[in-house]
Amino acid sequence: MGTNQPAYDRLFQYADSDRDGRVTGKDAVVFFEKSGLPRETLAKVWDMANSERAGFLDKKSFHKAMDLISLAQQGMEVTFNNYQTQQARGLPMPTLSGFNLDGMPDNPASAMQPVQNSASMSNNSPNFMSPTTYQKEANNSSVWGRGKPEIKPVPAKICTSIIDGLKQIYFQKVKPLEETFKFGHFFSPLMTESDFEAKPSVLLLGQYSTGKTTFIKYLLGRDYPGCHIGPEPTTDRFVVVYHGLEERRVPGNTLAVQPDKPYQGLAGFGTGFLSRLEGSQCPAQLLEEITLVDTPGVLSGEKQRIERNYNFVEIAQWFAARCDLIFLLFDPAKLDISDEFKSVITAMRGHDDKIRIILNKADQVDQQQLMRVYGALMWSLGKVFKTPEVCRVYVGSFNADAPISTEKNPNGKSLFEAEQKELLASLYDMPQRSCDRKINDFVKRIRALKIHMLLVGHLRKQLPSLFGLEKAQRKLMEDLPNQFTQVMREHHLPAGDFPDPARFAEILSSFNLADFPKASKEMVKQIDNVLSLDIPNLVKQFDSPYA
To answer: What's this model's pTM, rounded to 2 decimal places?
Structure first.
């Protein structure tokens, strides 16, 4: 692809009809037809090039599409294996009607005309969103004003991807409700644009000296700025390892105010935490696609936990909500799950699909000991997760500085290598699943908001109009589990979607319940429309243009 890159860049300029740096599905349909390939083949080309399901092709994925068209024009089937094999050998330029092999048009004047499709015609702007049934009044009070909803379709030049659409839905229809019901205090801080645009990320958690920092070094093939490795607790801060051409360390306060980074919500945890947060910029190739989050070792001593001037569990929960994968690391010598680690794992509730258990340093014990260690770990995890499903545990030794040792377990090397290969495959597939994960997490957030609104609205409705507000609120707080049950039965909601009553009551006690609005039918309908109409319509709009 390297020799064809200049020509591909020129073709990209012509395929990108509105010059926004994105080739949409409709742009691609028009441009790919110049190859003369059957529609079924071009559908495969789009699906493979749009592997992240973003709904558009950037330059990198457009280059891949051109390679796949070249592959098909040589009579080969469009498959991943054929693509990898032929790319290594070098693929010729594809033949496109109206363009020469240098990527230049035969007739420059006509080729410079933008392709007239719905993505560039204002009267055909996509309108995937249902009408807004409730809008917040112009002032910043918590009163919602009635009135005829104003339908504002999202212009095509603004919404050219699924991520753009999610942002439009959130800022126009969801965020006003979150602000009104103070949802950010109960679930997680309000989202910013950088949260939607963030790269996939991995959170590493475990007790000290289980190999978290060494694991990152193994993935990157090198040290990252500021890393320390040792048998004692060496990582004393949260470290966000991300891509940059220059090696440097970024203080936490600086990281939390950068608008292009998804960490502005961490400012709410205060200076005590931000002084223990650091960014580590590194030019490693893997970091071009994903971001890694190293964490301090989870402590077991009460005194050590008290000395922390931030809430470790809440911060781990904040990262978990935004990460694509969560790695929980253990080693054969540290199978006990401390109280703090148990609290951290419990806080991962709702993110079970992201969790991967890693039994690291498995080559340090013999085969019989490994069997006992594995059984003991599964028993401990079963007590914490409290689910009938057995957690998937990956057994291996992730150390960039030393190969897998066969001294104590000569027969274990092939097993460790197979386990490591499977784990790394799920890691490297993250960019392709990133868009689906963002949709999934967005839907979970909307469902949580709906339940929060119904709960608060139900409690608010039972307050007296004038006198005895404080006493009534205190009585409702004491009867919260029963109130949860009433809401659950009234609206036919699953019990597993409800928040922890104790935590909910603790947060709610700092608010005056009378300051919340009652959850009107229009408010609930707006959230229901987001779940049942807006998000499905958005996904359908940016599905394969050949479907």
So the answer is: 0.78
